Amino acid sequence: MSKRIDVSDLNVYYGDFLAVEDVSMTLDAKSVTAFIGPSGCGKSTFLRTLNRMHEVIPGARVEGKVLLDGDNLYADGVDPVTVRSQIGMVFQRPNPFPTMSIRDNVLAGVKLNSRRMAKSDADELVETSLRSANLWNEVKDRLGKPGSGLSGGQQQRLCIARAIAVSPDVILMDEPCSALDPISTLAIEDLINELKDEYTVVIVTHNMQQAARVSDRTAFFNIAGTGKPGRLIEFAETATIFNNPGQKSTEDYVSGRFG
Amino acid sequence: MAALMTERKRSALTRGRLPRYTPYVVAGSAIVVAAALMSLIGFNVFGWAVLSAVLFAAGNVACSALVEGRRKAMDKLATSVVAGAFLVALLPLVSVIWTVLVNGIPGLLAPGFLGTSMKGVTGTVDNASVTNHTPVLGGVYHAMLGSVLITLWATLISVPVGLLTSIYLVEYSADNKFSKVITFLVDVMTGIPSIVAGLFAAAFFGLVMGPGTKTGFVAAVALSVLMIPVVVRSSEEMLKIVPNELREAAYALGVRKWRTILKVVIPTAISGIASGVTLAIARVIGETAPLLVTAGFATQINSNVFAGWMASLPTFIYTQIMTPTSPSNPDPSAQRAWAAALLLILLVMLLNLGARLVASLFAPKTGR
Q1: How many domains, in total, are found in chain B?
Q2: Is residue B238 a part of any domain in this protein?
Q3: What is the pTM of this model?
Q4: Residues of B in contact with A95 (CB under 8 A)
Q5: What is the arithmetic mean of pLDDT over B54-68?
Q6: pLDDT above 90 (res B303)
Q7: Do residues A201 and A176 make contact, with C-beta atoms less than 8 angstroms apart?
């Protein structure tokens, strides 16, 4: 399953501070969209509004609409928990649950919600999720061991497996490779390429080569100055953004002439 | 190529260093000089040891200042001060343990001490055991049982209240005014003198159940007044150090907040919470004042905390010393009191060890 997301006229506030202003964009189903831009320009904040994770931060609120296949995430009576079970998220730092084994980490979405599951179904879910995250061969002999004993790159893939296991429609990734070495990064990038056959993937990255390698479309965010809101400057095919951008500031950023 | 340089006999790098044997020489002379000085003003071992230590520290620092320079001398001075402070802090502890061991072991080993109560042990019994040189009768079973039951009930009251309070403070309050008030009140509660907690419980149950109500449960309420702030504080700290990333990871999987707290946050913090609770228990099990006014003095076994007076180890010690069973022969009572004191120390020590065990049992597993 994979769904598209339509964002229209979205403003994000922290208290009175307008953090992201007036973003409209369409994220196609079964595609990879990359968000690039300087630090503090609101890419991560915007990403978190796509599954209402920003609400974890006190005072954060949103104006505007985010439609998941036509259903507004911010309509009255929408439970953020339902939203998050359909739109999964992978974070910057790998965060497997330290109290759980590798197997339990993959099953966390099921177990933490106390859903009953036959052991054979659980085994199958663990294997398919770990296989989709390209981690099965590395951990199949130690599923009972703690997830925190894996390397950073393996932990991040475990987190991706955990996100996949609840079968979301969309997977959001907030700089998933920024804490990883180049080889683990490559593993994750390959994985993202495979994931887009089944999921809508949105990735925030500071690495422009990575955006160029993995994404179909790229959104460039920028900020006019400290204290000003972040804005979506340009949103186009990745090739266009990197080779023939429409905006001067995009060109400056992707070619390294910014500041 | 130049020939390999041979190692110089006296390295330039070790210039200005005292030889290794210096501290031993200084220590030896300090002991001798101290002995000489003490013999002038009247010798005693304690003064001799203290004076030797002071002379040793001063001599060491002086030598260092002369040869090695200011930095090394300051280092030696600081080391002496730190080591001295450590020894001073250790002194009362060692002294207490030694005294209690010496005085307590005979009573603890007396037959039936752990298994019997004071029921039927009167002044005549004690007088008889002194005149006939028979073993001291009477035991602490009733007090031990009382201490354990009262503390157990205090724990049953304080842990849910304390843990839920800390969960509210950390997970739900978002630092609002109400949480600031709670934190302030918890801080105030931490400073409540234990006798006040006892009087509160006595007065409260006096109002509700009728005047003079003294049961184990009243004592448990008094102890929980002392225990709750400790539990709140320690669990709060433990919940705070659970990384936010784990909460976010659970939320991002579509897990509800209360389930996240129950199944991710608390399991991650459980080892710290458990050891905090155990230390809180160890803290209140030795309380005397609140028990004196709430549980009364019993000499017989009472396993019902809701009815009747109940003995406990601290009050047992207190009554045995202050009002010996046989006023003309207080020695058997003193022996029982020392033995009970030793037992109490052993209990607290076991609880502390238990806290460590619990912490390591519940700690998140590591390994590959």
Answers
A1: 2
A2: yes
A3: 0.81
A4: 243, 245-246, 248-249
A5: 89
A6: no
A7: no
